[in-house]
Amino acid sequence: MKIDTRLVQANGCPGDPHRAVSTPIYQTATFEQEGALEFSEYDYSRSGNPTRTVLEEQLAELEHGIRAFAFASGLAALTAVTRLLKPGDEILVIDDVYGGTCRLFSKILKRSQVAVRYVHGCTAEDFTRACSERTRLIHIETPTNPLLKVVDIAALAELAHGNDALLCVDNTMLSPYLQNPLALGADIVIHSATKFLCGHSDVVAGAVIVRDPQLAEEFYLIQNGEGAVLGPFDSYLLLRGIKTLGIRVERQQENAERIANFLSNHAAVKQTYYPSLLEKKNFSIHSAQARGHGAVVSFETGSLELSRQVVESLKLFPITVSFGGLQSSVSLPGRMSHASVPPQVAAERQLPQDLIRLSVGIEDAEDLIADLADALAVAESVSELRASVG
Ligand SMILES: *Cc1c(COP(=O)(O)O)cnc(C)c1O
Fold it and tell me: Whose C-alpha lies nearest to ligand 1, atom 2?
């Protein structure tokens, strides 16, 4: 079956005696045992909860994995991945990653003597050069956030496996609707389910999905042993959000494509970042591994002050971190979601401070474009005024 059908037709409550069509919320911490020595499928909601199970099974299926684990946040999911590493091991990570990933790797993981090496470049050769015999994990996002750089998933899987390492792909930017890294050779997929999977900006959640049974056992041990699980109500909200993932993403990326075109032709915009605007080589890598371009568009105006004016003049884009929701939003990543990047890493990765990131929602594209046109005009006139006064 095609993904649009699978999103909606998943069995919401297998074995439910009342045959409910929507997954019941098992808001319970414990489950009564049959007897002192007789156990049923569930005993305690950290170890397993029926609402969470339905969610995990759907996530595993959507990502072409054998098993998924729902966590309390995307960073809790990523933390679980880092538990696979021992002192002395090394992670290679693309430098243009989510700010919180940087903070986790550079500030917290360092305490466990796990080395982190940022790769400044996104070709397989850049990663090959950076690889050492200590490399046990390669962690990437593609397209990256917020600069929309592209990494070849299959090539990096090959590199990782030739080096006795695992490839973990943070698939948050595209969601399983548009890209399935496990099917391309990755070992682990993580999501900040807070973004597209949820889609309504009302849950913070994360997921780990794997295709290897041994790795699945390991993650179950970590999930249950450390306990950063997703609660039943949040699991239910995610299940509800996932049903509309397809139509949301389709509409959002249709709007995003139009906005990217508008921005790339606007005189006040220095550079626009969106997969359809990639140069040929990276565009073909992206097109070979993804089924669409997503709904995050970044652009530069040339100055932080101008960008601040634009962001503050927008009416339909509230200034918020995060992306992937139904409602459009805007952020200045250098000052917001990526402000947690340690200064040295920030200097090396050269995140432009004037970068504006749009998360495009499901509104009418013409309204969104008119709002952007107004905000750019206001910002330009303010800066011209300043220039003439100064
Ligand atoms: C938001 C985000 C995370 C972190 O997820 P939380 O749910 O906020 O903990 C990780 N990776 C990417 C790409 C993100 O956008």
Answer: 192
DSSP string, 325-378: SSS-EEE-TTTTTTTTS-HHHHHHHT--TTEEEEE--SS-HHHHHHHHHHHHHH
195 is catalytic: yes
Measured CA to CA, the distance from residue 281 to residue 289 in angstroms comes to 13
The structural domains of the chain, ordered by start, are: 3-243 (3.40.640.10), 246-389 (3.90.1150.10)
Per-residue pLDDT of 325-377, as tens digits, reads: 999 999 998 887 777 777 777 777 778 989 999 999 999 999 999 999 999 99
The Å distance, Cα 74 to ligand 1 centre, comes to 5
**Centroid of ligand 1 to alpha carbon of 174 (angstroms):** 12
Ligand 1: lining residues by beta carbon, under 6 Å: 73-75, 98, 100-101, 141, 145, 170, 172, 192, 194-195, 204, 206
**Inter-residue contact 371 to 378 (CB < 8 Å):** no
CA–centroid distance, residue 374 to ligand 1 (Å): 31
Cβ contact 94:148 at 8 Å: no
Which SS3 state, helix, strand or coil, does residue 156 take?
helix
Here the tokens at position 251 are: 């509409």
Q: Tell me, what's the pLDDT at 381? A: 85
**Helical H runs in the chain?**
3-9, 50-62, 74-82, 99-103, 124-130, 153-162, 175-178, 213-226, 232-243, 245-264, 280-289, 304-313, 343-349, 365-389
The catalytic position among 89, 95, 170, 371 is 170
Q: How distant is the alpha carbon of residue 362 from its chain centre? A: 19
